[in-house]
């Protein structure tokens, strides 16, 4: 019995070490190698570059926008706001006064009748998207601030609506960073 | 609620139904050591592994040896992870130069990942180095999942075997689970995730120049201008794949599967949900095949499906409702927005996919989240809690779900036997006093841990209440959720609770440990006892376990046992909050 226990301990340790190397190092490193060849852009964060070649964000990660001349994304609970080094939600419950006050303030800033996604924080705090309703809600304000026609801005929004994947999956959405970059381009 | 939402839920179930039988038949062949198409590639690896580690694959183990081997192995992996966490500052692949993890947190995390719980009291991207995530944490996603599958297979053998003293070989079972099932599925799934945008690299975090610099007011009231955004990176896809397939659920990032780098598109979301249920669903087929009663496997699958559907329907309904306390915002569903309760949810998933994900992740003991459960409506948040309180048997964790369910099956057969006044039989085995005692022990440890720890925490302002983000009945829900999640080895959280305290790290660690290992002992004892029994031929008086009637009885037993135990505490938490919310109260 004592010998049997000793054997079990030795096997446990050896098995842990060997499979640890196999699944803790070989597997992720092989995946990294294949991914970097097959999908280099995605594997590195779907980054967005400016004309000079410096990183200005990621297609998948939201950024904060304020003022009248940009489309606003959703409020963010990640760090001080859209901190992609510290993701997370507000975790405020539905009956929490802090939530109700915060949403009321956001509604006051965005305007009465603002779509709910525009005045609530996302789960990640990095949501890159708003609903088409939330984008349309902001068209008049942005058009006025940019001295563009509302129709031109509306057309721009419509061109940036991502429909449901394969016509079925998920919800229609607008990527705020991409829309605002296109807006900057259209204004120049 | 929308037609499209229901269509997405229906699509998920249709795909699961299609995949269940093939994966189940494949796993049956793997664990009966029959020929599979992967043999030419994997047999040499298997043989080499046995030779290096000194395993005799032909050795059969008594249930107690099987148990001891499992405990020894779990202990070895536990200590390895603890060591890596404590030493990460001196180890490679730490581009952010993160320091050693504090002892109580390192201990909690090591237990958490060893027990397949993946409770996380920390923010990963600011706490764990790439090496710790790969070698210390993702490895556990493989190991603990393989252990779960092995235990389920051992339990099935206990039912299937006649007058035998052994349940198989633990080492062979986990080796085959690792090499044949988890490794190939993970590699394929990881690459599919990368193609959609999940990151997979070892580079330092990126710094992006913001399109519009932001002024930020710090905690000290000083206003500063932020011009860059730090973008966390890492070997995410490889961990994400096994996190789902192994029903582990521990996120690479704090936001888990809500983070766009973990779950960037609706398609990755669908695949992740399928990955959670794939192996647990397949194991019902393994049960049917190995016990030579395929229809029994499907009856169990049916009972699980009914409970799953009830959960998702209730959650979807609750989350699609507007919050009556929020006035001024437009919460109605339309063609251009999903409406409903969007706090803590991502736009790309909307209401339906978040409700579906929350149900699946708490049915199975996965614990990954694609939205913040703490911000769900009271009833929407109660459903994930209730799913866990059923004992993680609705498909459940890989392996753990099936053996948990089989304990309920034994109870159902026993109750049916009482009703007709005959000695209950299960697939030709007489169910006797010892089996029922051990099964009851399994079923009682669970609520004892949850309710006991919760009671202590809510009675103590210093230990429990000081960690709350939300007050009123929601505060009770936060603490209750934490202990339920830990004991059920789920790992999801009402994340408003600050669990990174000595009290919570210690007690949640204890709950996770007992919820896994203490419950395994009676479970394996039942399996060993069943294997030794003679087979009795079925007669006209035998209660058939292959019919819809049996599935209905099984669902009934699960609901009665769980609801009788937990309804009082639920009525003081989420149910009370629901009533108060509609009466206009806030906290």
Automatic annotation (TrEMBL), chain A:
Keyword terms of this UniProt record: ATP-binding, Cell membrane, Ion transport, Membrane, Nucleotide-binding, Potassium, Potassium transport, Transmembrane, Transmembrane helix, Transport
The UniProt record lists the keyword ATP-binding: yes
**Which Gene Ontology cellular component terms are annotated?**
plasma membrane
Q: Which GO terms describe its molecular function?
A: ATP binding; P-type potassium transmembrane transporter activity
Relate the assembly described in the record: The system is composed of three essential subunits: KdpA, KdpB and KdpC.
What is the similarity comment for this entry? Belongs to the KdpC family.
Annotated NCBIfam families: kdpC (TIGR00681), PRK00315.1 (NF001454)
Name of the protein in its database record: Potassium-transporting ATPase KdpC subunit
TrEMBL record, chain B:
GO cellular component, as recorded: plasma membrane
Q: Tell me the keywords, alphabetical order.
A: Cell membrane, Ion transport, Membrane, Potassium, Potassium transport, Transmembrane, Transmembrane helix, Transport
Major subcellular site: membrane
Membrane topology listed for this record: Multi-pass membrane protein
Give the top-rank taxon of the lineage listed in the UniProt record for this protein: Bacteria
- GO MF annotation list: P-type potassium transmembrane transporter activity; potassium ion binding
> One Pfam family for this entry, by name?
KdpA
Task: Report the transmembrane regions from the record.
Answer: 6-31, 65-84, 134-156, 177-199, 270-287, 299-318, 393-420, 441-459, 509-530, 550-576
What is the annotated localization of this protein?
Answer: Cell membrane
Q: What does this protein do?
A: Part of the high-affinity ATP-driven potassium transport (or Kdp) system, which catalyzes the hydrolysis of ATP coupled with the electrogenic transport of potassium into the cytoplasm. This subunit binds the extracellular potassium ions and delivers the ions to the membrane domain of KdpB through an intramembrane tunnel.
Subunit: The system is composed of three essential subunits: KdpA, KdpB and KdpC.
Homology family: Belongs to the KdpA family.
Q: What is this protein called?
A: Potassium-transporting ATPase potassium-binding subunit
Gene, per the UniProt record: kdpA
């Amino acid at each position: 019995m004592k010998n049997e226990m000793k054997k079990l301990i030795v096997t446990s340790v050896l098995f842990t070490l060997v499979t640890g190397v196999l699944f803790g190092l070989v597997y992720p490193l092989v995946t990294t190698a294949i991914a970097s060849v097959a999908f280099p852009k995605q594997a590195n964060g779907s980054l967005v570059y400016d004309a000079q070649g410096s990183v200005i964000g990621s297609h998948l990660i939201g950024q904060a926008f304020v003022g009248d001349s940009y489309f606003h994304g959703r409020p963010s609970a990640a760090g001080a706001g859209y901190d992609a080094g510290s993701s997370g939600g507000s975790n405020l419950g539905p009956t929490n006064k802090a939530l109700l006050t915060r949403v009321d303030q956001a509604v006051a800033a965005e305007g009465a009748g603002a779509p709910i996604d525009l005045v609530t924080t996302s789960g990640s705090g990095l949501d890159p998207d708003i609903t088409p309703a939330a984008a349309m809600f902001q068209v008049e304000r942005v058009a006025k601030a940019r001295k563009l026609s509302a129709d031109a801005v509306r057309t721009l929004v419509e061109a940036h609506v991502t429909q449901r994947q394969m016509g079925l999956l998920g919800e229609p959405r607008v990527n705020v960073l991409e829309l605002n970059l296109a807006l900057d381009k259209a204004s120049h | 609620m929308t037609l499209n939402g229901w269509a997405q839920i229906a699509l998920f179930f249709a795909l699961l139904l299609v995949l269940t039988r093939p994966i189940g038949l494949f796993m049956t062949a793997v664990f009966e050591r029959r020929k599979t198409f992967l043999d030419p590639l994997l047999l040499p690896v298997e043989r080499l592994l046995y030779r290096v580690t000194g395993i005799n694959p032909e050795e059969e183990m008594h249930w107690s040896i099987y148990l001891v081997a499992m405990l020894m192995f779990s202990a070895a992996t536990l200590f390895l992870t603890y060591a890596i966490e404590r030493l990460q500052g001196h180890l490679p692949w730490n581009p952010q130069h993160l320091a050693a993890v504090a002892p109580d947190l390192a201990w909690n995390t090591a237990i958490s990942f060893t027990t397949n719980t993946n409770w996380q009291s920390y923010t990963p991207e600011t706490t764990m180095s790439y090496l710790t995530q790969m070698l210390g944490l993702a490895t556990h996603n493989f190991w603990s999942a393989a252990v779960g599958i092995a235990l389920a297979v051992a339990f099935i053998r206990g039912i299937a075997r006649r007058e035998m003293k052994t349940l198989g070989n633990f080492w062979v079972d986990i080796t085959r689970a690792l090499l044949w099932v988890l490794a190939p599925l993970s590699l394929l799934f990881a690459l599919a995730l990368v193609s959609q945008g999940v990151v997979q690299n070892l580079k330092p975090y990126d710094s992006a120049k913001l399109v519009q610099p932001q002024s930020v007011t710090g905690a000290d009231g000083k206003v500063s201008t932020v011009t860059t955004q730090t973008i966390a990176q890492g070997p995410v896809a490889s961990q994400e794949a096994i996190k789902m397939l192994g029903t582990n659920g521990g996120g690479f990032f704090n936001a888990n599967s809500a983070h766009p780098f973990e779950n960037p598109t609706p398609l990755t979301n669908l695949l992740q949900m399928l990955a959670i249920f794939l192996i647990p669903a397949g194991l019902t087929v393994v049960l049917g095949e190995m016990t030579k009663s395929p229809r029994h496997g499907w009856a169990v699958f049916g009972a699980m499906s009914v409970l799953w559907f009830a959960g998702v329907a209730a959650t979807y309904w609750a989350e699609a409702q507007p919050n009556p306390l929020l006035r001024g915002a437009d919460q109605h569903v339309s063609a251009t927005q999903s409406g409903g309760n969007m706090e803590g949810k991502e736009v790309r998933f909307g209401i339906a996919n978040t409700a579906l994900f929350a149900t699946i992740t708490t049915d199975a003991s996965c614990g990954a989240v694609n939205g913040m459960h703490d911000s769900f409506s009271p009833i929407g948040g109660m459903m994930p809690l209730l799913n866990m309180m059923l004992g993680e048997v609705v498909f459940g964790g890989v392996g753990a779900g099936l053996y948990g369910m089989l304990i309920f099956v034994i109870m159902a057969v026993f109750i049916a036997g009482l009703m007709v006044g005959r000695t209950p039989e299960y697939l030709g085995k007489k169910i006797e006093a010892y089996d029922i005692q051990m099964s009851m022990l399994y079923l009682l440890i669970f609520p004892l841990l949850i309710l006991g720890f919760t009671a202590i925490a809510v009675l103590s302002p210093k230990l429990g209440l000081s960690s709350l983000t939300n007050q009123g009945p929601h505060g009770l829900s936060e603490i209750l959720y934490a202990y339920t999640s830990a004991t059920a080895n789920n790992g999801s959280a009402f994340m408003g609770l600050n669990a990174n305290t000595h009290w919570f790290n210690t007690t949640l660690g204890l709950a996770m440990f007992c919820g896994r290992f203490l419950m395994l002992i009676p479970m394996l004892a039942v399996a060993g006892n069943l294997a030794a029994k003679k087979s009795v031929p079925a007669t006209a008086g035998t209660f058939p376990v292959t019919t819809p009637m049996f599935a209905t009885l099984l669902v009934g037993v699960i609901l009665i046992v769980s609801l009788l135990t937990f309804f009082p505490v639920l009525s003081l938490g989420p149910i009370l909050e629901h009533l108060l919310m509609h009466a206009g109260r806030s906290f």
